[in-house]
Amino acid sequence: MSVTRPSPREPVDAESKVGEDLSNHRVELRLWLRLLTCANLIEAEIRRRLRETFDTTLPRFDLMAQLERAPDGILLGELSRRMMVSNGNVTGLVERLVQEGLIERQVSERDRRAALVRLTARGAETFAAMARAHSDWVAELLAGLPIEDQKALWSRLGDLKLSVRGAISPGGPDGVLTDTIEAETKP
Amino acid sequence: MSVTRPSPREPVDAESKVGEDLSNHRVELRLWLRLLTCANLIEAEIRRRLRETFDTTLPRFDLMAQLERAPDGILLGELSRRMMVSNGNVTGLVERLVQEGLIERQVSERDRRAALVRLTARGAETFAAMARAHSDWVAELLAGLPIEDQKALWSRLGDLKLSVRGAISPGGPDGVLTDTIEAETKP
DNA sequence: GCAAAATAGTTTAAGGTTAAAAGAAATTGC
DNA sequence: GCAATTTCTTTTAACCTTAAACTATTTTGC
């Protein structure tokens, strides 16, 4: 508005996406929209670079990241749980990564319904390169924020996370345990 | 790990998704993963409730939110820009919403390539209800975080946003203008 | 005027995503 | 033992999403 030209090619971010009446000045809503904007901005750029640089996608990268931490392989179900996506989703992702020769799957001997997946040697190499680049990219994108601010942000986001989890979970002791005890290692 | 049981049904969030070597303790990476966790947690819950309560989806809600702020209608291209999604994406969303009778589209007289979309009366009503609920949901999810912390978080996320935009955009004067001048209204 | 370029949208091919239904194998409870 | 249940995974139908190719229309540059 303050600029005359109709900003012909400027995208508009999520903070203006969900409109619901500007008179509704709830802090919560503004916070959520800004959080969403930040996450989308970063995620979109990471996806773009993964595609451009490694011709791969974020879900594939995520899946391989899980496998990298489980050298002995991992069951599909566990994978789906850790990635927080549906079983069917994992089925498809695994299929494509096997196709690419980056991971391998193998039916469990003890339980013939279950299947183990793990990185292939080539998959491990490929992932190492991607993880390095990924880490650099994130550091680059956040470089404008002083390290102290980053730490403060991280800390407050921890509280936010607890708030959200608290509001979502059935309030059962299970969720509480998970949040408090396993906190940052596996929340 | 600190808990004996294998946590049979506990999902694991994004902070453990991208694994790249735990010895890499970059603050940036940890911050990004936590940010992603928070955003995903909230977004998933909002999507779930939109489906459960209104039998709709977040993209549809977003689209209607844009239309609500443009009572005189809006061009598809402008819509796609504001939503930060591709043209083709908007084509499909509009199609479905027209089908549902929530929006209407109309070819422009002056430019027969262009099409205007706007909310129908029923669409406006429906959206009003959804927006109210949406606002309440967000407030509920964030309720555990003191209002002062929310404001602080919002403020720091503003800096983060600038950092990311600065790192992404070609550094041209256009991007700078957009970021500084239009700041929160339409960045 | 009119050919070339730019612009507005749609289509297509590929992939990610889910919920729900279904299939196959293992466990459980008599 | 074996029927009922649970568990692990795949399939299906629907949607969201994009990049690239394509169509239709308008503008621009002579």
From TrEMBL, chains A, B:
The keyword Ribosomal protein does not apply. It comes from the Bacteria. The keyword Protein biosynthesis does not apply. Residues 28-162 form the HTH marR-type domain. InterPro entries: HTH_MarR-typ, MarR/SlyA-like, Tscrpt_reg_MarR-type_CS, WH-like_DNA-bd_sf, WH_DNA-bd_sf. Keywords: DNA-binding, Transcription, Transcription regulation. SMART domains: HTH_MARR. Pfam families: MarR_2. This is MarR family transcriptional regulator. The lineage of its organism: Bacteria, Pseudomonadati, Pseudomonadota, Alphaproteobacteria, Hyphomicrobiales.
